[in-house]
Specification:
Length: 435
């Protein structure tokens, strides 16, 4: 992937927009298409739809997007040159709330992904007018969770992904062979170590040895947390959120609540708004600029400093994810080093996506974190052993109780049969005879 740019999404966070050449139509028009991990717009139309800018979006037609990106506009998709184009509904956006921002038709066409010779039929909005100026490519592939129109989901459902038999030939074990044949719509971001370019791996088998986590929502890449700590401090009591959100953000972000929450049972924060960002600034006040109302670090020009902040640790049901606080920092326009904050949830950015090798399954709404630390759960085998041993011990105790009950009953019977008065009388008579 190349031509990486950034833009602000509706959360006011900077998002990566990286384009890769995709071929469209029978005549295979080459278009740089951006891959967006989640809906970057606060628009319902973007939840399950791909976008392609067509040549009708140009300077002459007063298309704002084209006027702001003249060089790229000359290469927009030419609908008339694609015999495989299928127009599903003209002026599709007219009756939508977002119609004042985006104008286009609902179409479908053949897409060839990364040199794959198998065409994938995809629906998309063919845009002829867009009021935004920031260039995000000649089109956008939406990889949002639950989007069945995702290029990877459709490629899988249409059986367009091919097994690489050259790789299979090198496998020796039969079970590995069959596992590889189980293709899936999963994908994974990767960074090329030589060129530094962002890549997307796809068309590979899911690793069944890794735990799977279901997303908390059905349309967002988010994960429910079961615990969170900052060094030795348990943050669970003051965290006002339950999930962290994964997006291709340039930087991860610590939550900075806008709610006027108070927690009287926590004396340190009594009558104050509680969140991790404020906790960090309060506890490590000597490391922050007291004259600034934001989260600027002291003596840390362009973030070239060493602060002894503890790591943030996130616990899910299956994984423990560790994030150094330094990975929440960014350099502002004045060269000041700031802690990146979010108005709501903890945001999990591109660096964490890459460092944890996150695997996304948009069809099943599932995630895997191959590089994260696994949570330790009791093995089913050990549980079975413990259960068996417990049953054996219980059985032994039961036998002992039964045996004790029998002995105590026999002793009681013998005592009842023995006449103590008669025994004493006999002993007195024997003594008299002896005398």
């Amino acid at each position: 992937m190349q031509n990486c740019r950034t833009f602000l999404d509706f959360r006011k966070q900077m998002v990566f927009s990286c384009a890769s050449d995709v071929l469209i139509g029978d005549n295979r028009q080459r278009q740089p298409i951006s891959f967006i991990l989640s809906n970057p717009l606060s628009l319902s139309i973007a939840n399950n739809m791909n976008f392609i800018f067509n040549s009708r979006c140009n300077y002459q037609n007063n298309c704002t997007y084209a006027k702001s990106n003249l060089q790229q506009a000359n290469t927009f998709f030419r609908e008339t040159r694609s015999p495989s184009l299928n127009v599903i509904q003209t002026n599709y956006t007219n009756n939508l709330p977002e119609g004042f921002l985006i104008k286009g038709d609902l179409d479908s066409d053949q897409f060839y992904l990364f040199g794959n010779n198998e065409a994938i039929e995809l629906q998309f909005i063919s845009i002829f007018n867009y009021t935004e100026k920031k260039y995000v490519g000649n089109g956008v592939f939406n990889l949002q969770n639950g989007n069945e129109n995702s290029v990877f989901v459709q490629g899988y459902l249409q059986n367009r992904f091919q097994v690489n038999f050259n790789q299979l030939f090198n496998f020796q074990l039969l079970n590995i062979f069959f596992d590889y044949l189980k293709q899936s719509p999963i994908f994974q971001f990767n960074s090329d170590t030589l060129t530094g370019r962002l890549e997307i791996n796809y068309d590979f088998a899911k690793d069944t040895s890794l735990p799977i986590i279901k997303t908390y929502s059905d349309n967002i890449w988010d994960v429910q947390m079961v615990g969170i700590s900052l060094g030795d401090e348990n943050m669970e009591a003051i965290a006002h959120y339950k999930v962290f959100i994964i997006q291709s953000y340039v930087k991860s972000a610590l939550p900075k609540s806008n709610k006027n929450q108070t927690y009287s049972h926590i004396k340190f924060f009594q009558k104050q708004t509680i969140d991790i960002a404020k906790y960090l600034k309060k506890k490590y006040s000597e490391d922050f600029d007291s004259t600034s109302g934001d989260y600027a670090l002291n003596n840390c020009f362009e973030c070239q400093c060493d602060k002894n902040f503890p790591n943030l640790e996130i616990f899910t049901t299956e994984y423990k994810i560790t994030i150094p606080i330094q990975e929440f920092t960014f350099v502002d326009d004045q060269g000041s080093c700031q802690i990146n904050t979010s108005s709501q949830n903890l945001l999990f950015g591109m660096r964490q996506i890459l460092s944890n090798n996150v695997i996304f399954d948009p069809l099943q709404s599932e995630l895997q974190f191959p590089e994260a630390e696994l949570m330790i759960h009791p093995s089913i085998d050990w549980s079975l052993v413990i259960l068996i041993q417990s049953n054996i011990l219980f059985a032994m105790l039961f036998v002992l109780l039964v045996k004790y009950e029998r002995y105590s009953t026999d002793l009681k019977l013998e005592t009842n049969q023995f006449d103590i008065k008669k025994y004493i009388t006999q002993q007195i008579m024997v003594k008299k005879e002896v005398q």
